[in-house]
Amino acid sequence: MKIDLGNALVAGAIAGVLSGAPSTVLTLWARGDVLASSAAAGTIVVRDDASRPVQVAAGAAIHGAISLGWALALAGALPRRPGVLAGAAAGLGIAALDLGLLARRFPAIRALAPVPQVLDHVAYGVTVALVVRWLRSRPGPGRA
What we know:
Elements: H1 5-18, H2 21-29, H3 36-42, H4 52-77, H5 84-101, H6 107-110, H7 114-137
């Protein structure tokens, strides 16, 4: 399927913002550190001993880039009218790669509680799928 770059980027941006809700709610409920996952993500691009503000800023940037990248991949791989199940499956697949394979190289990410992180990935996949579906259903040039 042809990827509409605009649709993919919009879906990735929306999903990148909203998909952290599960881990944020669970962390707040447990009275934990809501910035821990952002700081952990930051260690992908900055040293583990970088200051916390630097890690958090780097985490925000890398999370945005990863969110947009995965949205491009999903926009091309998802069915024409993706639903919740397709999005959830995509999110689980991304979680398997991100958390099961790639995170092995990053101790700070490995140290995060896995369930909230998997839930965030599922929320991401579902959000991308639903936003892409909605954007594709609109008439006009944004339809691809």
